[in-house]
Amino acid sequence: MNKIVNKVKNGLMGELNFPGDKSVSHRSVMLSALGASPVRIVNFLNAEDTLSTAKIMGQLGAKIEFVGDTELIVTGNGLHGLNAPTAILDAGNSGTTLRLLMGLLSGANIAAEFTGDASLSKRPMKRIITPLSTMGANIESTDGKLPIRIKKSEGLKGVTYEMPMASAQLKSALLLAGLFANGKTTVIEPAVSRDHTERMLAAFGASILRGENSVTIEPAKELIAPENILVPSDISSAAYFMVAALIIPNSDVILKDIGVNPTRTGIIDVLKKMGGNIELNNKRTVCGEEIADIRVRSSKLSGVTFGKEIMGRLIDEIPIIAVAAAFADGKTVVKDAGELRVKETDRIKAIATSFNKLAKGMIEETENGFVVTGKLPINFAAADSFNDHRIAMSLAILGAAAKGVEIENSESVNISYPGFYDTLEKF
Which CATH code fits 3-20+232-424? Predict the structure, then answer.
């Protein structure tokens, strides 16, 4: 389906609310299903990826009851109460669902087979399979890709694993496996990645020891589920309107109740370095996660260079940072972003291909990143999202700040932000 997004004629004004954080929504359902008492999850992200997780946890024996669109009650059968599924588990498009559950089911010694959509079937899983196999997991795959079969094993042993890249999904898979292992499991990161899993595990009573670049988990006998979990609003969803407010003249907007976990705020750091007028107000902590209202005003931006020192804190926001760079003076250089090659699509190639449809020569692709030349003429054009939700939303903001855009495969936004176009069309 194609979607035409028109130029926003006036600035963004007022207050905006956003859906629940995707990362926290996934983890809240998984861990609640390992408790033995009901957990009410509020502000759950009701989108395709997170619904894949909820469906699978139901197949594994948890009771999943929706109370409206963004609230649900999850009741598990205890840490060792998961059931072997009677059907293949479909992770859809969700790499988070697949990778985290590979660790969880390997640890729980639950035999299962995973499948997914065409995009997920191309994504590499050896980075998860290798360390889990070192722990003793019995996993079969098709050259490290779907379909993947978790088979019964003799149980896992704790290991110390030094990750080759900063990856919250890999770290989380190993920590979830470590819940069930014989002995403690330590994960060492080359750089900080998002830490929602270790925060939530600690909230459920797991023994977590955090170092500067390491996390250690002790095997658990049980998890104690809280009565309620409030999911903060997703900074990755808010990022599109953060950038829109910066680059569309006469904007002054407040983004409400946004999760500002320090492992997720790389987008704010980069935009401020570019000259963005961004304020964090009303900061507080809810359910172990920092939340704030973010005020953003139109700003004059300049190009910057960034790479591995911050990549783990903003990898999902790279496409929308490229939009900000398109309106900045000078060049913006993105380095050490090779992980983008193996997302829902090759995001480096997708950014270069699609953005250059609107402004020829805007994006110069490199092996592990790209260079954006700012302030080039941007025209109306049709451009493909490559069925990638983050490319689709970034194209929409690029067009809204320029002369409009026709987005091919625009429905991909439903993966993480089903109401995105409705929010944008308010302006």
Answer: 3.65.10.10
Kindly list the domain boundaries of the chain, sorted by start residue: 3-20+232-424, 22-230
The predicted model scores a pTM of: 0.95
| Average confidence (pLDDT) over 126-154 | 97
Distance CA 250, CA 298 (A): 6
195 included as an active-site residue = no
| Cβ atoms 250, 11 nearer than 8 A | yes
Place of tokens 């929308």: 320
Work out the widest C-alpha separation in the chain, in whole angstroms. Answer: 63
Contacts of 303 (CB under 8 A, 6+ apart): 274, 325, 328, 329, 330, 331, 332, 333, 372, 374
Instruction: Work out the burial of residue 281: count CB atoms within 10 Å of its CB; fewer than 13 is exposed, 13-18 middle, 19 or more buried.
Output: exposed
CA atoms of 193 and 314, how far apart (whole Å): 9
Task: Give the whole-angstrom CA distance, residue 86 versus residue 147.
Answer: 16
Active-site residue, selected from the candidate residues 117, 234, 257, 316: 316
H/E element holding 104? helix 95-108
CB 185 within 8 A of CB 216: yes
Three-state secondary structure of 188-204: ECCCCCCCHHHHHHHHC
d(CA 215, CA 158): 13
Interval 378-389: pLDDT, tens: 999 999 999 999
Give the fold, CATH level 3, of 22-230: UDP-n-acetylglucosamine1-carboxyvinyl-transferase; Chain (3.65.10)
